[in-house]
Amino acid sequence: MNEFISTTEAAKILGINRVTLFNWIKSGKIKAAKVGRNYIVHRDEVKNVGGDMKNIDKGVARAVKEYGETLKLLKDE
């Protein structure tokens, strides 16, 4: 199995836009290697960032559970 994947594949796995992925590469949030004009991302990098995103999802779910009614009221203002 290939250890590196394209930016298209990495973005699809992470559920983000390719532009966002390029911004993350530029900022250093995710490491990538440049091959010619393209970038490749190591599968482990995607797993590491994906794990962080799952933690964010859990935090959002908890906030919605705890403050759901308040958020609904704020939405209507």
Short description:
Helix content is 68%, strand content 14%.
Task: Explain how this protein is built.
With 77 residues, this protein is of the alpha+beta class. It has one domain: Multidrug-efflux Transporter Regulator, Chain: A, Domain 2, CATH 1.10.1660.10. 68% of the residues lie in helices and 14% in strands. It has three helices and three strands, in the order βααββα. A three-stranded antiparallel sheet has the order 1-3-2. The termini are far apart. The relative contact order is 0.14.
Envelope shape: elongated
Number of helices: 3
Q: How many domain modules?
A: 1
CATH topology (fold) name: Multidrug-efflux Transporter Regulator, Chain: A, Domain 2
Order the strands across the largest sheet as they lie in space: 1-3-2
Helix content: 55-70%
Per DSSP, what share of the residues sits in E-state strands of 2 or more residues?
Answer: 5-15%
CATH architectural group = Orthogonal Bundle
Q: Poorly predicted ranges (pLDDT <50, ≥5 residues)? A: none
The CA-CA distance between the termini, in Å, is: 52 Å
Radius of gyration: 17 Å
Class of secondary structure makeup: alpha+beta
Number of strands: 3
Indicate the CATH class.
Mainly Alpha
* Average pLDDT, all residues: 85
**H/E topology pattern:** EHHEEH
The biggest sheet, with number of strands, parallel, antiparallel or mixed sense and barrel status, is: 3 strands, antiparallel
